[in-house]
Structure formats: C-alpha cells, structure tokens
Amino acid sequence: GQLAIIPWDYNLALGGMSGSDANSTINGSIDSPVTSGSVSDRPLISWIFSDAEAKQTYHDVYREFIESYVESGWLEDGTQPLTAEIQRVADMIRPYVEADANSFYSVAAFDTAIDNLLQYCALRSESIQRQLNGDNTRVDASSVSIAAMGSMNGGGGGFGGGRSSRDDASSDARQTNDDGGDAGQADWQPGSHPDWLSVLWV
Based on the number of CB atoms within 10 Å of its own CB, is 10 exposed (0-12), middle (13-18) or buried (19 or more)? Predict the structure, then answer.
C-alpha cells in the first residue's frame, strides 16, 4: 500500500501554530525540521537524516530550488514568478476582503500580512542558503511579524461576528515585530485565522 500525507492548517505553516518568533522560525534548521521533540521521533522524516545518500539528495533538491527561484533573482523582482504570483493572488482575494462585512481582519491587516509573507520568503531563503553552505550565522528576521500572518495565540475566539474596532488600521499600526512581545495577537483569535494566506502558501 501507499501512505498519503494529508497536510492541514496551511495558514499556520510559517510559525503561527506554535507561536514562534520570526527569528527562530526563519532560522530553523533544515536538518532538524521539528518544533518539538527530535527528528528521531518523526518516522516520516527521520529516514532522510539517518541515511547519508537520502540526506544529500534532500540537500540537492533544496539547493536546486534556491538556485532556480532565489539566486536567479525572481524573488526580488516584482515581475518575476514568486513575488508576482503572491501579488496576483493577493489582488484576486482583496475585493472579497473589502466586501466581507463579517471578516475578522481589516484590509490593512491583509496588506500587512502580504508584506510580511514576502519578507519571510526572502529571509527564509537566505537562511537556507547559508545552511547549505555550512554557514550557521543567523539571519536577522526582527522586521517580520509571524502573528501578522496568522496565529493560534490570542484572547477570545470563535467563529462569526463582525469586524470590531481592533481590526481598524489604527489597531494595525500598533503592531510591532515578534521580538517586541505580543505583536498583532489582539487582531487574531483562535478559529479566525486569515485563511486567504493558505491560498498563497499552497
């Protein structure tokens, strides 16, 4: 038989599920991609790191991805695939965000999330490049807010309800980066994650 992995919560895939700060998430080890426990406790991935040939193939695929989609320059240029695709999908979704009277977030929060997503992609790519080259120097990710892209942490909760004053642009302006404490947590509630981000990540 064959085992098919069914991933879930894509909207929390970049650190929002665990409430991690940007520096630890963006600088996460590519050879120990777990947030708790150890790689040896994860049979679906542990075989990669226990076999030298499999691990080298894993690194080769990572390197090919970085060379093809980052070092080529298309991450930095808005006319190139990654940035352009993220912006294309954001532009497609934005009218629905604007029209949703029951949304949990403002248009300003939506745009803030997109900005943070673009920064995240660029800095995570740089961290991966360094690790592949044997450089353990950490990338400075203090400008990125994980909470702005969706978080499990926050007070209250539940589905439904209209937009409150905390979702106004003035509330968004109070957000700081993850290194500054509870940045952005007041804007997100359990069960109300910005699922439009999952469309961008998948």
Answer: middle
Per DSSP, the residues of 137-159 read: PPP--TT--SGGG--S--SS--S
Please enumerate in sequence order all residues whose Cβ is within 8 A of that of 178, keeping only pairs 6 or more positions apart, or say none. 20, 21, 22, 23, 142, 144, 145, 146, 147
The answer to whether the predicted template modeling score (pTM) of the entire model surpasses 0.85 is no
Q: Are the beta carbons of 180 and 141 closer than 8 angstroms?
A: no
- Token pair recorded at residue 137: 């120097």
Q: Tell me which DSSP letter residue 79 carries.
A: T
Given the structure tokens 């403002």, which residue do they identify?
Answer: 106
Rounded-to-integer distance, Cα 187 and Cα 36, Å: 26
**Residue 179: left if φ>0, alpha if ψ -120 to 50, beta else—which one?**
alpha
Contacts of 139 (CB under 8 A, 6+ apart): 26, 27, 123, 126, 127, 130
Asked if 148 contacts 124 with a C-beta cutoff of 8 angstroms, the reply is: no
- The neighbour count for residue 75, using CB atoms within 10 Å, is 18
Q: Kindly report, residue by residue over 74-133, the tens digit of the pLDDT.
A: 555 545 556 777 888 899 999 999 999 888 889 999 999 999 998 998 899 899 999 999
* Residue the block writes with tokens 């895939």: 13
Rounded to an integer, what distance in angstroms lies between the CA atom of residue 27 and that of residue 2? 33
Q: What is the pLDDT of residues 6-23, one digit of tens each?
A: 877 777 778 877 667 899
